[in-house]
Amino acid sequence: REPKHWGTPEEALHATFGFNAFRGVQDDVVRRVLAGLSTLAVMPTGAGKSLTYQLPAVMLEGTCVVVSPLIALMHDQLRSARANGIRAATLTSADMDREATIEAFRAGALDLLYVAPERASQPHFRELLSRARVSLFAIDEAHCVSEWGHDFRPDYRLLRPLLDLFPEVPRLALTATADAHTRADILAQLGIPDDGLIVAGFDRPNIRYTITGRDQPVQQLKRLMADNPGPGIVYAQTRAQVERLAEQLGATGRPCLAYHAGLAPEVRAGNQAAFVASEDMVMVATIAFGMGIDKPDVRFVAHAGLPKSIEAYYQETGRAGRDGDPSVAVMLWGAEDFVRARQRLSEVDPARLPSERARLDALAALVETAGCRRAVLLRHFGESPPPACGNCDNCLEPPGVTEATVTAQKLLSAVYRTGQSFGLGHVEKVLTGLADERVVERGHDRLSVFGIVSAEEAQLIRPVARALQARGALLATEHGGLRFGADAKAILKGDIAISVVVPPRKERSRRQRGGS
Ligand code: ADP
Ligand code: ZN
């Protein structure tokens, strides 16, 4: 593989992209690839992953074959590569010019060829590769190859046999999101040596993280919008929630659009274009929104509900502040989010259950911590951050931590004695001694747990319930009641202590005035 262009990587960088310098680890990745060494590059969104294969693609003789999971992503990449004068094409079922692409590939007239993973298993594709000259295999979104990753795609497992047919062609796997376990798995699955791992720093110091209970979401989001006049994204979980929130937030007079997979493609494209062009718009969207959007001045990203994983949270919040200016990421969560997530675990393929459960526990730890959010995030990605960042809610206003094991035990006893079938509202009445009709009718006013929680301790019931649900000690019944989960008995016995995070005073009094 002789260089096509005479010159150093820096010269080629300048000539092809007009950039004066590599950013972060780009340099290391490109040098390894040019030396013919297989590499796994873990670089956060926005760190400039595409350049690490596009530049070698330009410099090396032959074509770089890029495996990418989504046609929409491929087409974004294609446009930007071509805009830089790179000879690129996609080979997908959606392309009409497949014959011409194959012709160009065979003739060595392509720098880059984007394909979907399923093509790898097609015999005629293998044959095509063996009759062309391949300079590099770039495997984008490489975490898809791992069952430990958050987005496993069985098709990615078909790549290895293909790669092994071309042992002399280096492999470059790329991902934005991979914890230590997933990284090791990607290396093994794709046959990349352990010393081929290059990890870029994950910290986004200009993003301020805030994670708080979802008490009055619309009010909370309106306050966030008032504090942040620049463009923002609000992620909601369902299409209906997106529609409703877009309307409610739009009532502030701020331009607000909706984006979800249920909208017609031209509406989606129109809304996305309007957002990219706008300086003050709020996009209310499902997580379908954001991939491949290059808008550097997003000032806030809010989650109206629990994200799918820490990886997803990091990726979604990472769309804020790509220009490096101060930006905020706010997550509003409720116990019911964890209840639903734990219910979904019961539908998961048993083989994937341990990793899915670990993923949810990691998310619960992020949400429940009284310590630095950034430290939790960065440790999750294998870094060793300082214990406090000074730019997250818990660093800026340290919350109180209250020992609440006894309250947790009272709550669990009440759940147990009322038969593990009532919701939190009912259990709370029993605990605080509120003998309404339903309580009396069931005889719950005669239970030993009736009225055992004082008015002051009652403040802790909801935070404790939230903590127990987040860690899976309390689960939901089909009818929205509470029942025991894994740790409930150990907590009752006193083997596990429970403490809850109490929000800083200012926040607390504001919430109380709101009266939820
Ligand atoms: P990723 O795929 O890692 O999310 P991209 O490859 O989309 O990131 O790059 C993010 C942005 O950074 C793009 O606008 C790209 O042009 C820009 N970029 C990448 N490398 C450099 C560089 N060395 N100097 C300046 N800008 C760069
Ligand atoms: Zn912090």
Automatic annotation (TrEMBL):
The keyword ATP-binding applies. Its EC number is 5.6.2.4. Residues 220-364 form the Helicase C-terminal domain. Coiled coil: none annotated. Signal peptide: none annotated. One of its GO terms (molecular function) is helicase activity. CDD domains: DEXHc_RecQ. Keywords: ATP-binding, DNA damage, DNA recombination, DNA repair, DNA-binding, Helicase, Hydrolase, Isomerase, Metal-binding, Nucleotide-binding, Zinc. It holds the Pfam family DEAD. Its cofactor is Mg(2+); Zn(2+). Belongs to the helicase family. RecQ subfamily. This is DNA helicase RecQ. The gene is recQ.
